[in-house]
Specification:
- The chain has 828 residues and is α+β, with helices and mostly antiparallel strands.
- 56% of the residues lie in helices and 11% in strands.
- Among the domains are: 169 residues, Alpha-Beta Plaits (2-Layer Sandwich), CATH 3.30.70.2750; 376 residues, no CATH class.
- The chain has 24 helices and 19 strands.
- Helix 6 packs antiparallel against helix 7.
């Protein structure tokens, strides 16, 4: 990685950043970290494009609400090249004009739509409430006041009695519509509030009606038309307030039938006119939004690019004397020629004669980590980055993960049939990856799509290990001649028979005869358990050995002699010896001929007991655990060697560092500082100053106690982890055993019984049994077991492998890229 400095003329700055954004190769540094966001030079430009983006979001929301189709079309000439100020101004004017017209049409539509709803409700009230007046017969309806009250003469006798008492009976009503689910509440509240001095009747409206108070796009609700009779103005006013508080809409209804009919005809006529106006408004708004939909994708991309451009410009220093901007950024050293070419194109686009000057700075700052990946290696690198981003120059575990991760997964998942199904699914994802690119936008499917090549290798490796395990859907394959021969006559079901060992062995993998043996589980357990230990020690050894290139790169040779060497000796003294005894035990023929010439089986030693007594009884070996001559002496020597490595790892490095520190301070170098200032003239910019990073190291900062504590932690952690990490690789055996046994259970309990059925429905039973077996195999063994093996393989890499050499304290290289800006906006 290189730290570059750019001197950009002010009139070329926007074009330069635009070209670099299209290129996506430079990560700019913030040179105004002490300046707040509101005090930076281009904050007004950022606000301008924020406002334009707001308008586009509003237009996009209106397009989605209206159901207008959006064209995913980009004007490459306008989007992929730097836009001039006039182009931006014209685009802004067009967007503002579209927004104004759409807002006016939307406001008019909303107002007319509210009027339409009121007319519809009024029409239903006039239609439904009219039937309620027919119940009042033989009564004279007097004059109606402004509140909708009217006098009713109840009869001559009642009128005379009322006149004699000096009282005037005034009965009136209110009417309107309310949500159907609130009519019962309205009735109860009115009855209690008016103390029963009311009469309410209602009729349900069949068609649902849009609510005026609801948001746009809300579903219509079912309502009821009601009428409430009460006497006295105060009771009617109280009833009105209660009804409105429950969301009712009140409408004035004339008590006279001929006037109600006239009002109904007038309302329906106004509804017809309003529907015509609404239709015309909808057509006009749809046409306007259709014109916007043709360009909104392009406009959004441009606005987001321009806003990102000004955000980047806010990271630069402004040199008012030279009328230029000063920028710094990280880039790959190999990409500098491409960056210079982009700067030249930016100068041509701006029509300027003053070019941008690029200088490469010398610095001791820690650069961001840039790892070039492709669609194949990207998934594996993501696994590593999830643990920690490598430092610049540090060994990247992603290179080894490409092989070790699918291999360790396959050791736990190994089955030729299951691996084939997984490979088939992953191959389809890889072949049709362009057609299935939509999966990357779906949060739940993104993991499978981005990891398609990981799954492909996991499936291929699982087919290989399945072939070695001789497992295909829990069945054995007789590819080569077996090394065991079964008797030709078994003597009936339930009779115990023994296989005869032949002179040859099975060519590749596990002999299929073990699948039928009663001690098959004992054999495979022992085989896979020891295999897990051997492969685990090899994997950890690789991790320890990778300390060497790290130490050479960072010029810390002390880590090679006093960290790597004692660690590798300690590991080999104990677990390397265990691997040796495992291979020795595998290579030894534990059959011997007695005096009569008959083959007799010799009980092999228990390696677990041997390793335990190596620590409990050093210098002695039980006869039952003896494997070769000199075993006791070798075990004692290895144990003493391992013990010597502990103080070697613990003390030697800190003591050497203290000696070097005292040597420096005794010679008077209490403070060492280094800085470089280089003055240069280049490309018409006289006196351009390149200032390299300044670093100071104080010898007084050396603290032997801190170094000693840190070294003690690392030593204790390594010694203990050597045991726990080795045991952790036994998960390779455990998950492989679980996978094989679960596969055997599904076969023997679901599909195999259908093959033994007799009768005419046997074919249907076989089809049904196969379908259930296949679904469970795919869902449980490939889906759930595959995910379990994936997580365990992930743990073996993060904990057992990476911690041997990998710090993962780097910062990921994130260049300024328009593609990343647009992808992030799409995700949001």
């Amino acid at each position: 990685m290189s730290l570059i400095q750019l001197y950009i003329p002010s009139d070329v700055a926007r074009y330069t950043v635009s070209q670099l954004g299209e290129l996506g190769l430079v990560q700019f540094r913030d040179l105004n970290a002490e300046v707040t966001a509101f005090q930076r030079s281009f904050v007004n430009d950022v606000r301008r494009f924020d406002e334009i983006e707001r308008k586009l979001r509003y237009l996009r929301a209106q397009i989605d609400l209206s159901g207008v189709e959006v064209y995913d079309f980009f004007d490459d000439r306008f989007v992929s090249t730097a836009r001039g100020p006039r182009d931006i101004d014209d685009m802004e004017e067009r967007i503002a004009a579209h927004e104004g017209r759409v807002q006016r049409l939307a406001a008019a539509y909303k107002e007319m739509h509210a009027n339409h709803i009121e007319l519809v409700e009024n029409m239903h009230v006039l239609q439904e409430v009219s039937s309620l007046f027919t119940e009042i017969t033989g009564r004279h309806i007097g004059s109606m006041d402004a509140a909708g009250a009217f006098d009713v003469e109840l009869g001559a006798s009642a009128a005379a009695a009322a006149a004699a008492a000096g009282r005037d009976i005034n009965i009136g009503f209110i009417s309107g519509v309310i949500a159907r689910d609130r009519i019962a509440t309205l009735e109860r509240v009115l009855w209690r509030s008016l103390r029963g001095n009311m009469f309410l009747n209602y009729i349900d409206i069949e068609a649902p009606i849009q609510d005026n108070t609801a948001e746009d796009g809300a579903a219509p609700v079912y309502k009821s038309a009601f009428i409430v009779f009460a006497h006295g103005d105060s009771l009617r006013d109280r009833a009105t307030k209660i009804a409105e508080s429950l969301g009712a809409t009140l409408y004035r209804v004339d008590p006279r039938a001929e006037r109600r009919q006239e009002d109904l005809i007038d309302t329906m006529s106004r509804l017809d006119d309003l529907r015509l106006i609404l239709d015309n408004n909808a057509v006009a708004r749809a046409n306007e939004l259709a014109a916007v939909a043709e360009h909104i994708t392009t406009w959004l991309a441009i606005v987001r690019k321009e806003k990102a451009t000004y955000h980047a410009l806010n990271l630069f220093n402004h040199d008012a004397n030279r009328n230029c901007l000063i920028a710094e950024g990280w880039c790959a050293a190999n990409d500098i020629p491409a960056i210079q070419s982009a700067l030249h194109l930016a100068t041509e686009d701006a029509g300027s004669t003053v070019p941008t000057v690029l200088h490469e700075l010398r610095t001791t700052k820690q650069p961001p980590t840039f790892v070039r990946t492709n669609r194949f290696t990207e998934g594996f690198q993501n696994i590593v980055d999830a643990y920690g981003v490598p430092k610049a120059g540090e060994v990247n575990p992603g290179l080894f993960t490409i092989i070790t991760f699918p291999f360790l997964f396959a050791l736990m998942f190994g089955d030729l049939g299951h691996g084939f199904l997984m490979t088939l699914c992953a191959a389809l994802l890889c072949i049709y990856e362009k057609k299935l690119a939509w999966m990357a936008k779906d949060e739940s499917m993104r993991m499978f799509y981005s990891g398609r090549y990981i799954v492909l290798l996991m499936g291929i490796f699982s087919m290989f290990t399945g072939f070695i395990y001789n497992d295909i859907f829990s069945r054995a394959m007789s590819v080569f001649a077996s090394g065991w021969a079964w008797p030709t006559t078994h003597g009936g079901e339930g009779v115990i028979v023994e296989a005869t060992k032949l002179a040859h062995t099975y060519a590749v993998g596990i002999d299929p005869a073990w699948h039928h043996a009663s001690n098959s589980l004992l054999f495979t357990n022992s085989y896979k358990m020891k295999m897990s230990i051997v492969l685990g020690v090899i994997h950890m050894t690789l991790g320890i050995c990778l300390q060497v290139p790290n130490a050479l790169h960072f010029k810390k040779r002390i880590n090679i002699i006093h960290v790597f060497v004692p660690q590798i000796i300690f590991l080999f003294s104990i677990f390397g010896y265990l691997v040796f005894t495992i291979i020795f035990k595998w290579s030894t023929d534990w059959y011997a001929r007695d005096a009569a010439g008959q083959l007799t089986h010799i009980s092999p030693p228990s390696l677990l007991n041997m390793l335990i007594y190596m620590f409990l009884s050093p210098g002695s070996v039980n006869e039952s655990e003896r494997m070769f001559r000199g075993q006791a002496f070798l075990q004692t020597f290895l144990l003493l060697t391992a013990l010597v490595c502990v103080p070697w790892m613990l003390l030697v490095k800190p003591l050497i560092m203290r000696r070097e520190h005292r040597k420096i301070t005794s010679e008077g170098y209490g403070r060492i500082s280094s800085h470089v200032r280089v003055s240069t003239e280049a490309d018409g910019m006289a006196g351009a100053i390149i200032v390299a990073e300044q670093e100071e190291m104080q010898a007084d900062d050396f603290d032997f106690a801190d170094i000693m504590i840190n070294q003690s932690i690392h030593t204790i952690e390594f010694c203990l982890n050597s045991i726990s990490n080795t045991a952790s690789y036994l998960r390779l055996w455990a998950l492989s055993l679980a996978h094989a046994q679960l596969s055997e259970v599904l076969w023997s309990m679901i599909f195999l019984p259908t093959l033994k059925i007799t009768g005419s429905y046997k074919p249907f039973a076989i089809m049904f049994g196969f379908a259930v077996w296949f679904v469970l195999t795919f869902g449980i063994l490939i889906g759930m077991e595959g995910l379990s093996a994936f997580l365990h393989a992930l743990r073996l890499h993060w904990v057992e492998f990476n911690n041997k050499f990998y710090d993962g304290t780097g910062v990921k290289f994130e260049p300024f890229s328009f593609k990343a800006v647009l992808d992030e906006a799409d995700d949001q």
